[in-house]
UniProtKB/TrEMBL annotation:
GO terms for biological process: DNA damage response. Residues 3-28 form the PBZ-type domain. GO terms for molecular function: histone binding; poly-ADP-D-ribose binding. This is PBZ-type domain-containing protein. It comes from Aedes aegypti (Yellowfever mosquito). Keywords: Chromosome, Nucleus.
Length: 445
């Protein structure tokens, strides 16, 4: 039987009889001496060795010598030729050429996740732990917004009243600090980690648009207060309120969170003979703190400035603000239908299940589609506010079977207006848009 030549020739270091039976080991010739990977030069100066390596990059003689001096740990799989494991005490035992068989299971089924998932999970936990140590970064990372200065000042006020549990300062009066205040209270520190979208839905009520972020809630009711930002990086401190049980309409009530608490104490708190004194004392304390920290209460300069920039009211009554050149009338144009007519068109969808009643849904869409098409045409002509108005009106109408219609409008409008954070918020909200008042992520299992 013809044997194959062993590529190491006479310099082969294998002592396995089966290997010698299968391969020929011809004596060295001048040519093989030059190529032999096992050949070790006896007298080679450092300079000549370096030159040889650069001239012949395939010469691995030095590396081979290093390999021979080491022991490779034995592994389960070896060549089939190595049936006999002789000379186990030999220095080179375990160094036979080995063949590693790839698993028959596809790489993407389990194996790689088993290796990397624990590392990724550890990395996430370390990042989360680091974020919990910096409340500003946590809020920016998880809620995608920056907080106004009055936010920190309100927390300092609460700490002055109750150092151990500042988040409970208003609870006896029926008001809770929630949302980003939960971060300051370190309630997320030992909480279960959630998906990114869950944080964006933390205390997000059914009619809360991306521009609104809840920070205060009246206990056992749908009344909630929060910051209103026309752009994600807005830190003006404007605050609005909504009662989700009454519908989608919001009301601007001040220019800082102190205005929100005082509005609650004056208009929403449940008064009894037992809490009249504490209510008056709390209001006085807030006013004194605001004065000493140069916080203007019940000011309206920012609200007036915003009012001039509003291009349309929308169904939630607070309106939207987009870049608009009034001279060129560039940035916004009116919808093809009035608010009254649009509400009539949308009312048809209230009784339709778009999955079960496809014919009725298409018939209703035949009336709405021209308005949608007109909004997209407006976007093509740089009137981005039109698409945002229509998307907001569909959202405020509240019918879930219009989610697929409003989502492209929101994405297009916010993309053109360079408000990508609001795209993430609206997508997360529409994925799990919940009614009711129990919207605390920290109680979610």
């Amino acid at each position: 039987m013809d044997k194959q030549d062993c590529k190491y020739g006479a310099d082969c270091y294998q002592k396995n009889p089966a290997h010698k039976e299968k391969y020929r080991h011809p004596p060295k010739t001048a040519a093989t001496e030059e190529r032999s990977p096992g050949k070790v030069e006896q007298e080679v100066s450092p300079s000549s060795s370096s030159k040889r390596s650069s001239e012949n990059p395939l010469d691995h003689s030095d590396a081979m010598e290093d390999v021979k001096k080491c022991k490779r740990p034995p592994t389960p799989e070896k060549d089939n030729d190595n049936a006999e494991e002789s000379d186990k005490a030999n220095e080179y035992y375990g160094m036979t050429r080995q063949r590693y068989t790839l698993p028959e299971v596809p790489m993407d089924v389990g194996m790689m996740s088993d290796i990397y998932d624990p590392q990724i999970e550890f990395s996430k936990k370390e990042e989360y732990k680091e974020l919990c140590g910096d409340w500003k970064m946590f809020i920016k990372h998880k809620f995608l917004v920056d907080m106004p200065d009055c936010f920190q000042s309100m927390w300092d006020f609460c700490r002055s009243k109750n150092e151990e549990k500042p988040w409970e300062v208003f609870e006896k009066l029926g008001l809770r600090l929630v949302g980003p205040f939960d971060v300051l209270a370190k309630k997320f520190k030992d909480a279960k980690m959630h998906e990114p979208g869950d944080y964006l839905r933390h205390w997000r009520f059914y009619y809360d648009p991306p521009e609104f972020q809840t920070v205060l809630v009246k206990k056992d009711s749908g009344v909630h207060y929060g910051y209103w930002r026309d752009q994600p990086d807005d830190t003006s401190g404007l605050v609005a309120m909504n009662d989700v049980n009454k519908g989608c309409e919001f009301k601007m009530i001040g220019e800082n969170v102190f205005d929100a608490v005082i509005h609650f104490l004056e208009n929403e708190v449940t008064t009894t003979p037992f809490n009249k004194g504490p209510i008056a004392a709390m209001k006085k304390s807030l006013e004194e703190w605001a004065k000493s920290h140069d916080i203007k209460l019940k000011a309206n300069d920012k609200q007036k400035a915003r009012g001039k920039a509003v291009v349309c009211k929308t169904f939630h009554k607070v309106g939207i603000v987009v870049p608009f050149d009034r001279k060129k009338e560039l940035g916004y144009r009116e919808l093809l239908e009035s608010d009254a007519n649009l509400k009539k068109i949308l009312s048809r969808f209230d009784r339709i299940d778009n999955a079960a009643d496809k014919i009725e849904f298409d018939a209703a869409m035949s009336q709405l589609q021209p308005v949608v098409t007109g909004a997209f045409i407006a976007v093509d002509e740089c009137d981005f506010g039109t698409a945002l108005e229509l998307a907001t009106d569909l959202f405020c109408h509240g019918t879930k079977n219009l989610h697929d219609v409003m989502k492209p409008l929101f994405v297009t409008a916010y993309s053109m207006l360079q408000r990508p954070q609001y795209i993430a918020i609206i997508k997360s909200h529409l994925e799990d848009r919940r009614r009711g008042i129990d919207l605390d992520l920290l109680t979610k299992r």
